[in-house]
Amino acid sequence: MCGIAGIFDLGGVRDIDRAALKRMTDALAHRGPDGEGFYFAPGVGLGHRRLAIIDREGGAQPFHAQTGGILTYNGEIYNYEKLSRRLQENVRLKTRSDTEVLAEGLSRDGPEFLHKLRGMFAFGFYEPDTHRLILARDRLGERPLYYAETNDGFLLFASEISAIAASGLLDISLDPRAIADYFYYGYVPDPKAIYRGVYKVPPGGWIAFERGKSPRHECYWRPVFTNGPALAYDEAAEMLRAELDDAVKAQMMSDVPLGVFLSGGVDSASVVSSMAEAKGAITACTIGFDETAHDERAAAREIAVKFGAVHYEDEARADSTALIDRVAAAMGEPFADASALPSFQVAEIARRHVTVALTGDGGDEIFAGYRRYPFFLGEEKLRRLAPAPLRAALFGPLGALYPKLDWAPQFLRAKTTFQALAQSSAQAYADAVAINLPSRIDLLLNADFKRTLGGYRPASLIEEAMERSGAEDPLSRAQYADLMTWLPGRMLVKVDRTSMAHGLEARPPLLDHRIVEWAGAIPPEYKLQYGQGKRVLKDAFVSRLGADYIARKKQGFAPPLRQWMRQAQDNPALRLNASQHWRESGLFNESGVDAMIRDHRSGRADCAQELWSVIMFDAFLRTTRR
Question: pTM here?
Answer without folding.
Answer: 0.94
